Amino acid sequence: MAGHFSQTIILGNVGKDPEIRTTQGAQKVASFTLATSETWKDRQSGEKREKTEWHRVVCWNEGLTSVIERFVRKGSKVQVIGQNQTRKWTDRHSQDRYTTEVVIQKFGGDLVLCGEPAGEGCSSSQQSQPRQQAAQQRSGGWDAPSGNDLDDEIPF
Hints:
- This protein has 156 residues and is α+β, with helices and mostly antiparallel strands.
- It has a domain at 8-113: CATH 2.40.50.140.
- The protein has helices at residues 62-71, 125-138, and strands at residues 8-14, 19-22, 28-41, 48-59, 77-90, 96-104, 110-113.
- The radius of gyration is 20 Å and the shape is globular.
């Protein structure tokens, strides 16, 4: 029988600015909370209901950690692909505690930046078109040079 594989995919809004810390081995680690929401109409009352779940995300991939550090803020909409992991720890009162996290390992996980935060005009593609066009006119991407002096020569 083949090995088992656990993968978690969530899409939501970041709850607060990510925390970036460095381990004793000089590796950067990012952690943040992600809110996912579910809405439905109550059959009996007819009222709209909403349930929000909070997920703790930890990223051990240094490349993605630098993206998180530069671009992810409170309210950012992101998709996370990682593994659910539960770890046991002991609190100050010597009580055993458990924390379940979505972990993006060095290999095998991913993070996708999905655009503007909720509530800032990205609910309809028609509304976001002018913003996207204006952003494209201002810059050519995350690390594009500031001028139009791109080198078109092939390096080989």
